[in-house]
Specification:
The chain starts with 7 loop residues before the first strand and ends in a 7-residue tail after the last helix. It contains five helices and five strands; from the N terminus they run ββαβββαααα. The chain has a five-stranded mixed β-sheet with strand order 2-1-5-3-4, sandwiched between helices. With 163 residues, it is an alpha+beta fold. Helix 2 crosses helix 5. The radius of gyration is 16 Å and the shape is elongated.
């Protein structure tokens, strides 16, 4: 038995670059980013939207890319962790994660970075309680969270809302 699948052409704007792919309508944004666009910094963990490892910014909002279809993202501006560094110069939060030992295995780190970058770009004056609240939606099995919180607190004062 042969199963025919209809594929759809989709153009995704990721990190200010256009990617065209032919995908099944059910293909997740996470899988399209990784498989069709070659951007493997976005990690897929639970595939149920629980862990947050796949968090990317879609039109400035954090989105679990495992819960969004690639076809839904057409016409949106998508930012992944690959967009944070400027060549060899790390983003303030990436450097803060290193300086504060906020990662161990690193699997969850891209999701945490995109989640908090989105939050701090909107409001660089997040209170300590708001930082913890934002970070509470993502899971980490290694760090115990304290150094992640410490890293965010150290970087937030230097974050500037984009123009």
């Amino acid at each position: 038995m042969t199963v025919m699948t209809d594929k759809t052409d989709v153009t995704l704007s990721i990190n200010s670059r256009s990617y065209t792919a032919r995908v099944e309508p059910r293909k997740t944004l996470a899988d399209a980013i990784r498989e069709d666009c070659g951007l493997t910094g976005t990690h897929v963990g639970c595939e149920h939207g629980v862990c947050g490892a796949c968090t990317v910014l879609v039109d400035g909002e954090p989105v679990r890319s495992c819960l969004m279809f690639a076809v839904q993202a057409e016409g949106c501006e998508i930012r992944t962790v690959e967009d944070l560094a400027d060549g060899d110069k790390l983003h303030l939060l990436q450097q803060a994660f290193i300086d504060n030992h906020a990662l161990q295995c690193g699997f969850c780190t891209p999701g945490f970075l995109m989640l908090i970058v989105g939050a701090l770009e909107k409001n660089p004056d997040l209170s300590d309680e708001e930082v913890v609240e934002v970070l509470s939606s993502n899971l980490c099995r290694c760090t115990g969270y304290q150094n992640i919180i410490k890293a965010v607190k150290s970087a937030r004062s230097m974050m500037v809302k984009p123009a």
